[in-house]
Specification:
Strand content: under 5%
Shape: rod-shaped
Radius of gyration: 25 Å
Order of helices and strands: HHHHHHHH
Number of domains: 2
Structural class: mainly alpha
Distance between the termini: 68 Å
Number of strands: 0
Length: about 160
Protein backbone atom coordinates (compact mmCIF):
# COMPACT_ATOMS: atom_id res chain seq x y z
CA UNK A 1 0.00 0.00 0.00
CA UNK A 2 1.30 3.39 -0.99
CA UNK A 3 1.93 5.94 1.73
CA UNK A 4 0.71 9.49 1.10
CA UNK A 5 1.69 12.67 2.84
CA UNK A 6 -0.93 14.50 4.85
CA UNK A 7 -2.93 16.97 2.80
CA UNK A 8 -3.12 20.52 4.16
CA UNK A 9 -5.43 22.96 2.44
CA UNK A 10 -5.65 26.52 3.69
CA UNK A 11 -8.35 28.37 1.78
CA UNK A 12 -7.87 32.06 1.18
CA UNK A 13 -10.58 34.15 2.84
CA UNK A 14 -12.06 35.16 -0.49
CA UNK A 15 -12.10 31.54 -1.69
CA UNK A 16 -13.72 30.42 1.56
CA UNK A 17 -16.48 33.02 1.17
CA UNK A 18 -17.01 32.02 -2.45
CA UNK A 19 -17.28 28.34 -1.53
CA UNK A 20 -19.70 29.11 1.30
CA UNK A 21 -21.85 31.13 -1.08
CA UNK A 22 -21.80 28.36 -3.71
CA UNK A 23 -22.81 25.73 -1.18
CA UNK A 24 -25.54 27.95 0.24
CA UNK A 25 -27.09 28.71 -3.16
CA UNK A 26 -26.58 25.26 -4.69
CA UNK A 27 -26.85 26.55 -8.26
CA UNK A 28 -23.73 24.83 -9.59
CA UNK A 29 -23.48 21.29 -10.90
CA UNK A 30 -23.26 18.44 -8.41
CA UNK A 31 -19.61 17.84 -9.30
CA UNK A 32 -18.63 21.43 -8.60
CA UNK A 33 -20.53 21.46 -5.30
CA UNK A 34 -18.91 18.17 -4.24
CA UNK A 35 -15.45 19.58 -4.97
CA UNK A 36 -16.30 22.76 -3.05
CA UNK A 37 -17.43 20.65 -0.10
CA UNK A 38 -14.19 18.66 -0.26
CA UNK A 39 -12.12 21.84 -0.13
CA UNK A 40 -14.17 23.21 2.74
CA UNK A 41 -13.74 20.02 4.78
CA UNK A 42 -10.00 19.89 4.09
CA UNK A 43 -9.75 23.51 5.19
CA UNK A 44 -11.52 22.51 8.39
CA UNK A 45 -8.68 20.11 9.19
CA UNK A 46 -10.34 16.79 8.42
CA UNK A 47 -8.27 13.87 7.20
CA UNK A 48 -8.40 12.71 3.57
CA UNK A 49 -10.06 9.41 4.45
CA UNK A 50 -12.80 11.13 6.45
CA UNK A 51 -13.45 13.69 3.70
CA UNK A 52 -13.58 10.93 1.09
CA UNK A 53 -16.14 9.03 3.16
CA UNK A 54 -18.23 12.15 3.76
CA UNK A 55 -18.22 13.15 0.08
CA UNK A 56 -18.69 9.63 -1.22
CA UNK A 57 -15.57 9.67 -3.37
CA UNK A 58 -12.20 7.94 -3.36
CA UNK A 59 -9.31 9.31 -1.33
CA UNK A 60 -7.44 9.77 -4.61
CA UNK A 61 -10.16 12.21 -5.74
CA UNK A 62 -9.80 14.25 -2.55
CA UNK A 63 -6.04 14.47 -3.04
CA UNK A 64 -6.51 15.47 -6.69
CA UNK A 65 -8.89 18.31 -5.76
CA UNK A 66 -6.46 19.53 -3.09
CA UNK A 67 -3.52 19.36 -5.51
CA UNK A 68 -5.42 21.28 -8.20
CA UNK A 69 -6.31 23.96 -5.63
CA UNK A 70 -2.69 24.32 -4.56
CA UNK A 71 -1.40 24.44 -8.12
CA UNK A 72 -4.06 26.44 -9.92
CA UNK A 73 -6.37 28.09 -7.43
CA UNK A 74 -10.08 27.75 -6.82
CA UNK A 75 -11.29 27.67 -10.42
CA UNK A 76 -8.81 24.94 -11.33
CA UNK A 77 -9.97 22.85 -8.36
CA UNK A 78 -13.70 23.26 -8.96
CA UNK A 79 -14.08 23.26 -12.72
CA UNK A 80 -12.86 20.82 -15.34
CA UNK A 81 -10.71 21.80 -18.27
CA UNK A 82 -12.44 21.78 -21.65
CA UNK A 83 -12.53 18.33 -23.17
CA UNK A 84 -10.68 17.70 -26.42
CA UNK A 85 -12.66 17.23 -29.55
CA UNK A 86 -14.13 19.18 -32.34
CA UNK A 87 -16.84 21.75 -31.68
CA UNK A 88 -20.32 21.19 -33.08
CA UNK A 89 -20.77 22.63 -36.56
CA UNK A 90 -24.33 23.74 -35.77
CA UNK A 91 -25.36 26.01 -32.94
CA UNK A 92 -28.54 25.45 -30.91
CA UNK A 93 -30.74 27.66 -33.08
CA UNK A 94 -29.62 25.96 -36.28
CA UNK A 95 -30.26 22.54 -34.75
CA UNK A 96 -33.76 23.59 -33.71
CA UNK A 97 -34.56 24.90 -37.19
CA UNK A 98 -33.44 21.62 -38.78
CA UNK A 99 -35.51 19.57 -36.32
CA UNK A 100 -38.52 21.79 -37.03
CA UNK A 101 -38.03 21.28 -40.75
CA UNK A 102 -37.93 17.51 -40.26
CA UNK A 103 -41.16 17.61 -38.26
CA UNK A 104 -42.85 19.30 -41.22
CA UNK A 105 -43.90 17.70 -44.47
CA UNK A 106 -41.17 16.50 -46.85
CA UNK A 107 -40.47 18.43 -50.06
CA UNK A 108 -42.82 18.14 -53.03
CA UNK A 109 -42.52 14.78 -54.73
CA UNK A 110 -41.06 13.00 -51.69
CA UNK A 111 -42.94 10.60 -49.45
CA UNK A 112 -40.72 11.03 -46.39
CA UNK A 113 -37.48 12.54 -45.15
CA UNK A 114 -34.18 10.73 -45.49
CA UNK A 115 -30.94 11.75 -43.82
CA UNK A 116 -29.45 12.71 -47.20
CA UNK A 117 -32.56 14.74 -48.11
CA UNK A 118 -32.47 16.56 -44.75
CA UNK A 119 -28.83 17.55 -45.30
CA UNK A 120 -29.58 18.79 -48.82
CA UNK A 121 -32.72 20.71 -47.80
CA UNK A 122 -31.00 22.30 -44.78
CA UNK A 123 -28.25 23.59 -47.06
CA UNK A 124 -30.75 24.72 -49.70
CA UNK A 125 -32.90 26.57 -47.12
CA UNK A 126 -29.75 28.03 -45.51
CA UNK A 127 -30.67 26.78 -42.04
CA UNK A 128 -26.98 26.57 -41.22
CA UNK A 129 -23.67 25.75 -42.83
CA UNK A 130 -23.62 22.74 -45.15
CA UNK A 131 -23.29 19.65 -42.95
CA UNK A 132 -22.65 15.99 -43.58
CA UNK A 133 -25.21 13.24 -43.37
CA UNK A 134 -23.51 11.97 -40.23
CA UNK A 135 -24.05 15.30 -38.45
CA UNK A 136 -27.74 15.12 -39.37
CA UNK A 137 -27.94 11.50 -38.26
CA UNK A 138 -26.47 12.31 -34.84
CA UNK A 139 -28.78 15.32 -34.48
CA UNK A 140 -31.83 13.16 -35.23
CA UNK A 141 -30.60 10.44 -32.90
CA UNK A 142 -30.20 12.94 -30.05
CA UNK A 143 -33.82 14.05 -30.58
CA UNK A 144 -35.07 10.47 -30.96
CA UNK A 145 -36.45 11.23 -34.43
CA UNK A 146 -36.77 8.68 -37.20
CA UNK A 147 -38.32 10.58 -40.12
CA UNK A 148 -37.96 7.63 -42.49
CA UNK A 149 -40.54 5.85 -40.31
CA UNK A 150 -43.68 7.86 -40.91
CA UNK A 151 -45.45 6.92 -37.67
CA UNK A 152 -42.56 8.31 -35.52
CA UNK A 153 -42.77 11.87 -36.87
CA UNK A 154 -45.29 14.49 -35.85
CA UNK A 155 -46.38 16.49 -38.88
CA UNK A 156 -47.86 19.94 -38.54
CA UNK A 157 -51.50 20.30 -39.46
CA UNK A 158 -52.46 16.65 -38.91
CA UNK A 159 -54.91 15.23 -36.43
Amino acid sequence: MQSYHRVHVALRKRDGRQIAEMLRKGQESARVLRRASILRQLDGGQRVAQVAENAGVAAKTVRAVARRYEEGGLDAALYEKPRPGREWVLNTGQKQRIVAMVCGPPPQGRARWSVRLIAEEAAKRKLGPPVSRETIRILLENHDLKPWREKNVVHRGTE
